[in-house]
């Protein structure tokens, strides 16, 4: 065991499971190549994932609103990759992307729902149209792509859905992120139910919860709406913090992409995976605070039941 693994038993178990699984498949003479479908592939996590998948020798259908941004990867990796335009709010386009994977590569093994964007604004000030549009892209986009791919994975009795949420989808409460985090909480609830429904069918589901990563999520994928004086100390302060720190956030999307590609090789991947030290700490603090509050109010909570029979 390496020093890093010795100090981190979870890492050791992860690598042992991954390597053991690969060795077993090699000994059985099984083909290791997987076919991936990745949404939001033109930048950020999506692009890094496509690069990691192709570098590993797997095949990918990389989708984006502007797939021409992936032309360099097509030139580099040739027949290992296909690109397609995809607006995830369009279920017909989602079905076409799944069909492309089947037509070009003969099947589909891993579906990564990564596409999304955010508008930072107070809930009071955000228009219903803007709120609804974020729900459509960030939640129903996941639903559309998942439902398009699910019959394929069901029929073959195997596959893996990797659903991008956020630390905000577990912890929540970030001023300005009302619509975005509503969607991410929805992604987590949807994916929890999906996991319990499809586990007996041999299909895996993992929710990814990144913290602060140096992608353009806080840049070109984020729109910050000017706020009034009454919301300046909450939403305004968060917007200023994000703008001043986004280029120094500690998360490395290339490292995260490698972790996720390795995850797809596990027989028993986690239901949820936090990414980044900050995400781990935020999740721990939120969990402890919620447990403490639940215990404080436990007697009141229990008093809502009918009296126990004597």
Gist of the model:
It contains twelve helices and nine strands. It is of the alpha/beta class and 310 residues long.
Distance between the termini: 58 Å
Order of adjacent strands in the largest pleated sheet = 3-2-1-4-6-7-9
Number of separate helices? 12
DSSP E strands, number: 9
**CATH architecture descriptor:** 3-Layer(aba) Sandwich
| Rounded mean pLDDT score | 88
Sheet with most strands: 7 strands, parallel
| Helix-strand string | HHEHEHEHEEHEHHEEHHEHH
Strand residue content: 5-15%
Please describe what this structure looks like.
It contains 12 helices and 9 strands. With 310 residues, the chain is an alpha/beta fold. The protein has a single domain, classed as 3-Layer(aba) Sandwich (Rossmann fold). Helix 3 packs across helix 10 and helix 6 runs parallel beside helix 8. About 4% of the residues have low confidence.
Which terms summarize this structure?
single chain; 310 residues; alpha/beta; Rossmann fold; 7-stranded parallel beta sheet; two-stranded parallel sheet; 12 helices; globular
List the helices and strands and how they pair.
Elements: H1 3-7, H2 9-27, E1 35-38, H3 44-55, E2 59-64, H4 71-77, E3 81-85, H5 91-105, E4 110-113, E5 118-120, H6 128-156, E6 159-164, H7 167-170, H8 178-198, E7 203-210, E8 222-224, H9 232-245, H10 253-263, E9 272-275, H11 277-296, H12 298-302
Parallel strand pairs: 1-2, 1-4, 2-3, 4-6, 5-8, 6-7, 7-9
Helix pairs in contact: 3-10, 5-6, 6-8
């Amino acid at each position: 065991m390496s020093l890093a693994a010795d100090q981190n038993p979870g890492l050791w178990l992860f690598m042992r499971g991954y390597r053991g699984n690969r060795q077993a498949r090699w000994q059985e003479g099984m083909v290791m190549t997987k076919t991936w479908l990745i949404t939001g592939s033109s930048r950020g996590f999506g692009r890094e994932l496509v690069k990691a998948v192709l570098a590993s020798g797997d095949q990918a259908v990389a989708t984006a609103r502007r797939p021409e941004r992936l032309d360099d990867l097509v030139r580099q990796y040739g027949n290992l990759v296909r690109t397609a335009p995809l607006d995830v709010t369009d279920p017909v386009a989602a079905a076409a992307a799944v069909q492309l994977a089947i037509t070009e590569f003969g099947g589909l093994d891993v579906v990564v729902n990564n596409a999304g964007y955010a508008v930072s604004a107070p809930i009071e000030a955000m228009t219903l149209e803007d709120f609804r549009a974020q729900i459509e892209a960030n939640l129903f986009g996941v639903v559309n792509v998942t439902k398009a791919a699910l019959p394929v994975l069901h029929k073959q009795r195997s596959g893996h859905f990797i659903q991008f949420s956020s630390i905000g989808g577990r912890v929540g409460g970030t001023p300005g992120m009302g619509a975005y985090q509503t969607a991410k909480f929805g992604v987590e609830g949807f994916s929890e139910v999906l996991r319990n429904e499809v586990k007996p069918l041999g299909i895996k589901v993992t929710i990814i919860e990144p913290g602060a990563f140096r992608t353009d999520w806080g840049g070109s994928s984020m729109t910050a709406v000017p706020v009034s004086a009454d919301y300046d100390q909450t939403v305004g302060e968060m917007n200023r913090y994000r703008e001043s720190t986004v280029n120094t956030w500690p998360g490395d999307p290339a490292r995260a992409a490698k972790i996720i590609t390795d995850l797809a090789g596990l027989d028993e991947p986690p239901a949820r995976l936090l990414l980044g030290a900050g995400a781990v700490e935020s999740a721990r603090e939120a969990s402890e605070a919620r447990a403490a509050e639940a215990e404080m109010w436990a007697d009141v909570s229990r008093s809502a039941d009918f009296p126990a029979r004597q």
